[in-house]
Amino acid sequence: MTERYEGSFFGRRKGKALSPTRIQRVENAMPELGLDLSVSTPESALNLFDAPVSSVCLEVGFGAGGHLLHRARENPDIGYIGVEPFVGSMAKVVTTVLAEGLTNIRLYDDDAIKVLDWLPEGSIDLAYQLYPDPWPKKRHWKRRFINEKNLDRYARVLKSGCEFRFASDIDTYVDWTLKRCRKHENFEWTAETASDWTQPWKNWPGTRYEAKAVRENRVPRYLTFLRV
């Protein structure tokens, strides 16, 4: 049976109310920092950034933004597209981007499938999905972002030979993702030894959610799949 779910893949969008100043800051910045999906798909994702970039990475669901910002700082010649519908997280990242003058980040504050459908084919050099909502109740599993249709979307935008990286501390979601990615004709799991999926990627900054998981004795897993 083909998995098809086109509803929202995220839960609540708002938590603690933002101050009027932060709201105004985000509203003023998003016309420049945000992706405008109402315009035609660009010929190249490289053209989305003010600064010249040599490649483009995508992070779906950047949470508090620690990983996204870390990668953007350490690789100023790489463009980063970050997607996050949670208002507080977006405000935090926008504030940091403005304060540090980062020119290699573009943001989107709605469902990631819209970005994946809008981006040019074969335009992304690396994609991350780190600690996505696991929707732990079985009746909600259809809302997990990793499904056949969304893997089709990732496969369309990723360049051949490039990686899709997934991290989670929820065993059922790790197993879920492994099963679906290994079944998909466009993805190949790269692990050869246990350390390939128990150790994080190079220059890994960690995330706030990951630190909480470790404190609660949940074990993070890091899966790498090659776009073939």
UniProtKB/TrEMBL annotation:
<feature type="binding site">
    <location>
        <position position="84"/>
    </location>
    <ligand>
        <name>S-adenosyl-L-methionine</name>
    </ligand>
</feature>
<dbReference type="GO" id="GO:0008176">
    <property type="term" value="F:tRNA (guanine(46)-N7)-methyltransferase activity"/>
</dbReference>
<dbReference type="InterPro" id="IPR029063">
    <property type="entry name" value="SAM-dependent_MTases_sf"/>
</dbReference>
<keyword id="KW-0808">Transferase</keyword>
<dbReference type="Pfam" id="PF02390">
    <property type="entry name" value="Methyltransf_4"/>
</dbReference>
<feature type="binding site">
    <location>
        <begin position="207"/>
        <end position="210"/>
    </location>
    <ligand>
        <name>substrate</name>
    </ligand>
</feature>
<feature type="binding site">
    <location>
        <position position="59"/>
    </location>
    <ligand>
        <name>S-adenosyl-L-methionine</name>
    </ligand>
</feature>
<feature type="binding site">
    <location>
        <position position="137"/>
    </location>
    <ligand>
        <name>substrate</name>
    </ligand>
</feature>
<feature type="binding site">
    <location>
        <position position="133"/>
    </location>
    <ligand>
        <name>S-adenosyl-L-methionine</name>
    </ligand>
</feature>
<dbReference type="InterPro" id="IPR055361">
    <property type="entry name" value="tRNA_methyltr_TrmB_bact"/>
</dbReference>
<keyword id="KW-0489">Methyltransferase</keyword>
<comment type="function">
    <text>Catalyzes the formation of N(7)-methylguanine at position 46 (m7G46) in tRNA.</text>
</comment>
<feature type="binding site">
    <location>
        <position position="111"/>
    </location>
    <ligand>
        <name>S-adenosyl-L-methionine</name>
    </ligand>
</feature>
<protein>
    <recommendedName>
        <fullName>tRNA (guanine-N(7)-)-methyltransferase</fullName>
        <ecNumber>2.1.1.33</ecNumber>
    </recommendedName>
</protein>
<keyword id="KW-0949">S-adenosyl-L-methionine</keyword>
<dbReference type="InterPro" id="IPR003358">
    <property type="entry name" value="tRNA_(Gua-N-7)_MeTrfase_Trmb"/>
</dbReference>
<feature type="binding site">
    <location>
        <position position="169"/>
    </location>
    <ligand>
        <name>substrate</name>
    </ligand>
</feature>
<keyword id="KW-0819">tRNA processing</keyword>
<comment type="similarity">
    <text>Belongs to the class I-like SAM-binding methyltransferase superfamily. TrmB family.</text>
</comment>
<comment type="pathway">
    <text>tRNA modification; N(7)-methylguanine-tRNA biosynthesis.</text>
</comment>
